[in-house]
């Protein structure tokens, strides 16, 4: 970095002049790469938190009539496990990759709104800490990640548990919407010359579609959270059955958000796999255009399937039939993707690196989850499976088998770009196989546990169900998964210290991010590249690499760092925290804080 | 935040550091702020859409009065709706004045927009107090809950818009926002027109349809 910086006027490198402390640098940075790393590290931390919660749940369920956990603690654990994994791991880890990779893949120097990007991160971090602080007040959320009304009304859950949940998610949701606005604008408006929409790498396409889903689904959830909050604090009647309120309205609104949310989690995984498989097959992605169209269709139809979460509520045959059909239809574009990945590998010169193993593993494990998904798309079938461990098995196959496999693969794939070091392949392959064994051992038996009638969300089960053996198997699987995750962490630490130097493009990949230095310089590209193809580093490498790493532009302007995002984010979480005091004017203090932050932000010079 | 509109330009290749030149490079030729703000408004549409849907779903579900048919006053609300529509006209004139005419005119029209917004808020305050005296509260029934939360969120949006316009008016007066920075007023205008359109939807669906 230093050698490149020497050619660039010092104004573009405020950090190069006077050395800032690392902490201050991270607190005020607006660099998409640093924010991406912070998102990723935070999400991995919460993955450990959520994983610990899952481990406790599995220990409790390892044998019938276990007394390891109380029913109350168990409720909080499964609620926070779900909430953590969806909102503090799944979404932010995708956003971490969007942050780091998307600007590089489209040949941009940063995202469209760098300070807004920092604000999203800080609200996410402080909001997530706020929600998890509920453990220390003995008020961890306990109404399920789906927060079904009217269980979550003050009458039935009088403590602050649900308030931590609803208000914390309100903050996280706002951060996600800001992030989505940022990425949509970045992708629409900051593509380098020649980077037409249909030349964008698939991962960027998935970031684009996911961001649209976030921008449209999260405001729906925000309204649901406002309703339950007002019901609890101001006595409104949205879900008060005595006043005519209908708990079904909560379910409809929640799943209207909740099903697009499923695709918010899985589309980034599709994007990752669509990068890894072509690279390690040495072939362009098979059916690029169809991959884009099918993902767009998934995003679109994903809005019309929400009530398949509600077959057991008695909506009537017409609604049941409609949502059965729409849910089955969505399997078609998904199946198209599976076949396209297979066709990409077919006839390619495949290298089974750890990243490739995870990508191929994802295609297989995700398909298993997809098949069980089609099974309970059928409403009569679903009536048998609702609220059993069969459903738990299904969504862990799509979320771990789909998302987490891809995330692990993406770490091995992009780690050289993030750090300039290669990850250790031997530890990596060991980690992969232990994870495959552990994951299948944990969740495959849950199909049978569910079909044999064990209900989910219940803290124990009778010995007469005869499910002790299968449950013990499932719990032992968690041990393998834990070892695998610890191996991953060990590998990251080891590779940071001892990893071989990566160079710009260790995998011989085709997309723009591999033209930059590893790790990229602050301004990413010395000159903005001009692309003419979908695989610039395979078809026009010389020009592209010269633009990325050759003589830099004489004038590169990067936005200066700012502490207003951090301060404003603090104000956002302060507002929701003060709301919980019940003093009507207290949140106004937080709002004033936000307003002061916003005005100072607006007048802050960015040159 | 619109203040930052013209200055956040990561692709700016200029070197004098001023904000008075060169539209930054974008793939579409449309400014970052305009694209971003349209996306944000799309998101807001879903927010209000959900609130309006909740009102419609619960329309005849209140178990005690006062009911919507007894309280909603179409003639008075027509006047306040007209006022809000006129504020959108003033908004258009303000932007035109800033871009093509005098600073003074721009300030006057911007203040007129904010003023008409305040008149609308006055009507809303009157309406809320009137309903309150008729016995309708947030807690009373589903009509009260859905109506006050929906129109309350809309009123909050109008209030934010009024503050935004007042800040811009001062800025234009002091010469900090001139024709070259008119994007700031344009973005505020997008927001203002959006809030206005939401009200048209509310007025039609909640007041006019029995």
In terms of structural class, how would the helical and strand content of chain B be classed? Answer: mainly alpha
**Share of residues in strands of chain B:** under 5%
What is the number of beta strands of chain B?
A: 0
Distance between the termini of chain B: 40 Å
Q: Main sheet of chain A?
A: none
Shape of chain A: globular
> What percentage of residues of chain A falls in helices of 4 or more residues?
55-70%
Please give the share of residues in helix of chain B.
over 70%
Question: What does this entry look like structurally?
Answer:
The complex is a heterodimer of chains A (607) and B (210). Chain A has 607 residues and is mostly helical. Chain A has helices spanning 2-5, 14-17, 22-28, 32-61, 71-105, 114-132, 161-189, 202-234, 247-281, 288-301, 317-345, 354-375, 379-385, 389-419, 425-451, 468-498, 536-539, 541-549, 564-579, 586-603. In chain A, helix 5 runs parallel beside helix 7 (161-189). Mean pLDDT of chain A is 92; it is low at 1-17. Chain B has 210 residues and is an all-alpha fold. Chain B has helices spanning 32-57, 68-71, 74-100, 103-133, 142-173, 182-208. In chain B, helix 3 packs antiparallel against helix 6. The longest helix of chain B is centred in the C-terminal third of the chain and has 32 residues, at 142-173. Chain B starts with 31 loop residues before the first helix and ends with a helix. At the A-B interface, helix 7, helix 8, helix 9 and helix 20 of A face helix 1 and helix 5 of B.
């Amino acid at each position: 970095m230093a050698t490149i910086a020497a050619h660039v006027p010092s104004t573009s490198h405020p950090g190069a002049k006077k050395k800032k402390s690392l902490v201050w640098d991270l607190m005020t940075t607006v660099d998409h790469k640093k924010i991406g790393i912070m998102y990723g590290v935070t999400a991995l931390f919460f993955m450990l938190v959520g994983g610990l919660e899952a481990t406790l749940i599995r220990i409790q369920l390892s044998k019938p009539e276990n007394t390891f956990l109380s029913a109350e603690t168990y409720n909080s654990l499964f609620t926070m496990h779900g909430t953590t994994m969806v909102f503090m791991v799944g979404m932010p880890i995708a956003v971490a990759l969007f942050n780091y990779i998307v600007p590089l893949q489209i040949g941009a120097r940063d995202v469209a709104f760098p300070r807004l990007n920092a604000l999203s991160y800080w609200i996410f971090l402080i909001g997530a800490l706020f929600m998890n602080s509920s453990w220390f007040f003995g008020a961890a959320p306990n109404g399920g990640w789906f927060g079904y009304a009217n269980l979550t009304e003050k009458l039935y859950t009088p403590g602050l548990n649900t308030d931590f949940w609803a208000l914390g998610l309100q903050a996280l949701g706002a951060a996600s919407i800001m992030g989505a606005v940022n990425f949509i604008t970045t992708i629409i408006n900051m593509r380098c010359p020649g980077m037409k929409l249909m030349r964008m790498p698939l991962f960027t396409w998935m970031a684009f579609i996911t961001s649209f889903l976030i921008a449209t689904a999260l405001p729906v959830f925000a309204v649901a959270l406002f309703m339950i909050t007002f019901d609890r604090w101001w006595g409104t009647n949205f879900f008060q059955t005595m006043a005519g309120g209908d708990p079904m309205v909560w379910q409809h609104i929640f799943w209207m958000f909740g099903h697009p949310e499923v695709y918010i989690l899985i589309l980034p995984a599709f994007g990752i796999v669509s990068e890894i498989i072509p690279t390690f097959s040495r072939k362009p992605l098979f059916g690029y255009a169809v991959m884009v169209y099918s993902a767009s269709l998934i995003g679109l139809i994903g809005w019309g399937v929400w009530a398949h979460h509600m077959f057991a509520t008695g909506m009537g045959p017409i609604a049941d039939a409609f949502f059965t059909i729409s849910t089955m239809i969505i399997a078609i574009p998904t199946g198209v993707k599976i076949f396209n990945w297979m066709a990409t590998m077919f006839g390619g010169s495949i290298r089974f690196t750890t990243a490739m193993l995870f990508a191929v593993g994802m295609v297989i494990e995700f398909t298993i989850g997809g098949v069980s998904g089609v099974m309970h798309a059928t409403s009569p079938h679903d009536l048998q499976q609702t609220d059993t461990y069969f459903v738990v098995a299904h969504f862990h196959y799509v979320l771990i088998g789909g998302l987490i496999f891809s995330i692990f693969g993406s770490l091995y794939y992009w780690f050289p770009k993030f750090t300039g070091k290669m990850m250790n392949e031997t530890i990596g392959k060991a980690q992969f196989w232990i994870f495959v064994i552990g994951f299948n051992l944990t969740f495959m038996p849950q199909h049978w546990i569910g079909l044999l009638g064990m209900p989910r969300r219940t803290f124990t089960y009778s010995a007469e169900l005869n499910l002790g053996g299968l449950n013990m198997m499932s719990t032992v699987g968690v041990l393998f998964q834990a070892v695998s995750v610890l191996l991953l962490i060990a590998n990251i630490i080891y590779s940071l210290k001892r990893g071989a130097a990566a160079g710009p493009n260790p995998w011989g990949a085709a997309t723009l991010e591999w033209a930059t230095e590893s790790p990229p310089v602050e301004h990413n590209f010395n000159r903005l590249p001009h692309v003419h193809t979908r695989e610039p580093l395979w078809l026009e490498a010389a020009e592209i690499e010269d633009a990325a790493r050759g003589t830099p532009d004489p004038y590169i302007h990067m936005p200066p760092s700012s502490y207003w995002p951090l301060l404003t984010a603090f104000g956002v979480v302060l507002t929701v925290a003060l709301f919980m005091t019940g003093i009507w004017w207290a949140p106004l203090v937080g709002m004033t804080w936000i307003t002061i932050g916003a005005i100072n932000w607006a007048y802050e010079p960015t040159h | 935040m619109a203040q930052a509109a013209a200055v956040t330009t990561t692709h700016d290749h200029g070197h004098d550091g001023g904000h008075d030149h060169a539209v930054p490079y974008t793939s579409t030729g449309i400014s970052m702020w305009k694209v971003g703000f349209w996306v944000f408004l799309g998101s807001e549409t879903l927010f209000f859409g959900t609130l309006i849907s909740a009102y419609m779903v619960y329309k005849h579900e209140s178990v005690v009065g006062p009911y919507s048919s007894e309280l909603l006053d179409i003639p008075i609300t027509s006047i306040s709706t007209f006022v809000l529509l006129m504020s959108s006209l003033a908004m258009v004139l303000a932007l035109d004045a800033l871009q093509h005419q005098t600073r003074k005119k721009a300030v006057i029209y911007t203040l007129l927009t904010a003023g008409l917004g305040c008149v609308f808020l006055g009507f809303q305050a009157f309406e809320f107090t009137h309903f309150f005296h008729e016995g309708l509260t947030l807690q009373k029934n589903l009509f009260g809950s859905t109506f006050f939360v929906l129109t309350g969120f809309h009123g909050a949006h109008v209030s934010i818009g009024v503050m935004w316009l007042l800040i811009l008016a001062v800025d234009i007066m002091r010469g900090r926002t001139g024709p070259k920075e008119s994007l700031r007023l344009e973005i505020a205008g997008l927001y203002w027109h959006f809030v206005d359109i939401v009200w048209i939807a509310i007025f039609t669906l909640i007041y006019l349809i029995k």
